[in-house]
Input
Amino acid sequence: MQTITYTTTVSPASGILNRIYLPTNRGVEIIMLKDIVRIQSISNYSKLYFNNGKTLVVAKVLRWFEEQLHSYQFVRIHRTHLINMNYMQSYNNNDGGQLLLHNGESIKVAKRKKAALIRYLVAA
Output
């Protein structure tokens, strides 16, 4: 039986990660990172939310995405959310912390993740 590994690719011209290959029940989806707004954990699956309003559920845990994308402006702000910081509109410190995205969604920032988010924002 042949084993296939799905991974990310780096653009040869820029040296910057620009897409990720994900197995789905239909085959393999090639996803441009710039199109992902956020990724939400759903048990042993992850739900990707795209800038065009579409979603995709894949059989990968959120930790896998976090490990693959931590250097590419994706920040884990909650045990169930990984955010593409290119879509962040603002951060509100009320109610423990809320991240507002360009599409109008508001995602709660976990208390344990708040310091790492602030460090990211200060360094950016």
About this structure: Residues 8-123 form a domain with the OB fold (Dihydrolipoamide Acetyltransferase, E2P) fold (CATH 2.40.50.1020).
